[in-house]
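It is time I had a proper look at our fold encoding. Can you supply me with one protein entry, sequence and fold together? It will help me judge whether the discrete encoding reads sensibly. Leave the record below and I will have a look:
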Amino acid sequence: MSLTFMGMPKFSRTADQAENDTVLKGNIAHATRMMRSKRARAFAEVPDAAQLRDASAAIKDHTIRHLGSYLRQLEKSVIDRGGHVHWAENGEQAAALITELVRAKGAREVIKSKTMISEEIGLNEALTEAGITPVETDLGAFINQLREDHPSHIIAPSIHLNRSQVRDTFVSEMAKHGRPAPEDLTDHPEELTEAARIHLREKFLRATVAITGGNFAVAETGTLLTFEGEGNIRMCNTLPDTLISVIGIEKLVPTWQDLEVYLQMLPLSAVGERQATYTSMWSGVHDGDGPTEFHLVLLDNGRTNALADPVGRQALRCIRCSACLNVCPVFEHAGGGQVYGAVYSGPIGAILTPQLGGMSNEVERSLPYASSLCGACSEVCPVKIDFPEVLLHLRAKAARGPGHTMERLAMSASREMFAHHRVLGAGQRAAGVFGNKAAALPLPGPAKNWKGSRNLPELPGTSFRRWMAEHEKELRKQAAAKQAEAKQAEAKEDTQ
């Protein structure tokens, strides 16, 4: 299953289309600036922030190196606590497996917490096709579901909308899915939140099956852990009879003690708080407490391919905090996550999506170029991913793929030119004479796209080589004139 959205063009085209949407870009800019300033203030209050980042990266690297061992340990721990473990090689398998689990319980409606991995596997579409209604219970995901919209951010999926747009969505769409919005609903956040809660409460109370993700899974104890700010995940974890959780195989930590680091790092990086509003943990099933049936789905979907890449595998450290999105000038200027055409957006999407998908389509091959390589993402990453290194690594891979024949030929020609100074000089002289005239002409074939995405500067009328030769000639002339003047002065003194 593709990690990109059906029919979406590559990043550069969608970014161009969003260029003049001032409302969209204003919404994104306001939200990301607020989140990054809040994060910066929170980190400034943590004296050992640098050591926490080092520990976060080290734990993740250790886990990834021994992933097979810890996955087997996790499976045993979950089963020992009364749970069931399922393995899915790709998104189609995971979506089909979950659909069958829901169908086996006779449920026609399921409640869901926001989870990027369900977007990754196309779970809502699979459930709907099977006649099962998925209900998103996170406020942002719920708004997007009403609008049939894609997420624009990893932790805040509807930040591309302002309050009046949310209010209009509730008024026009909420009645189609259950309780309608109040007739006198305004765009005040408290009223919007209350309207969503009233609408969703009856769905929580009648649900028999819930689907969640997980921020971390502890191999040692079989415990899953989620962070949230609304309480909807806790409702999913406790009210229904059956709980299904789906996570990527990289979400592991080895021991309960390792959680100490991430209990601090994820809330700090994601929302600029020392502690999440709700931190929920569950391990298997317990009589008289919560669901009576628990299923854990472990998803690969390209992760082992990324694991095999010594450079690219550091993307698997990601804890989905979205700090990289909030500082990325490209993400902000382009208009948020929807323009990426993929489930995962921003800097992490630019390095994760192509690896999970294998650069199988135009969108995936374009994402490594959705960056200015400024490195702001690496500076804030809590697990110290070197984004520029991975981006350049993936760009090199993309250039070896289909559609880059002209680029490879151009690079080969450039290599030959730079290897022979006389050829280079001739090319520079020609550019000085014909360059500006040629730049004004439309270029054929793939070169048209190359030129169309750049503002070419005015070329000088002469090359640096020629300017330097003339400059040195003038300096020699001035030096000779001064030398002649000095000799005349000496001769004049001798005659006196």
User: Anything to note?
Assistant: The chain has a mean pLDDT of 90. The first strand starts at residue 84 and ends at 88. Residues 464-495 form the longest helix (32 residues). The radius of gyration is 29 Å.
